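Entry 12.
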Amino acid sequence: MVVKTLLEREDDELNPRGDCDRTPLALASQEEHEKIVLLFERDSVDANIADRLGYRPLDWAMLFGNEATVKLLQSSDHPQPCDE
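Predicted 3D structure (tokens):
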């Protein structure tokens, strides 16, 4: 499985960026792949990395109406940035 292979990499390689600087967690959040989001969360992937548009994984989940993924990301141990 591609996700498990990615998670086996060193810490500094857990957040590779693809098109528009989006991370695998952002893509999984957009596409409502809760199990993949959960795997990333358990391996402490940074949920606060913004892409070129300034969107974080939580933003993508909200934008696409993926309520279960939104709840998962909001309840994670990762601190959410301030909305100031």
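Annotation: Residues 18-74 form a domain with the Serine Threonine Protein Phosphatase 5, Tetratricopeptide repeat fold (CATH 1.25.40.20). The chain has a mean pLDDT of 82.
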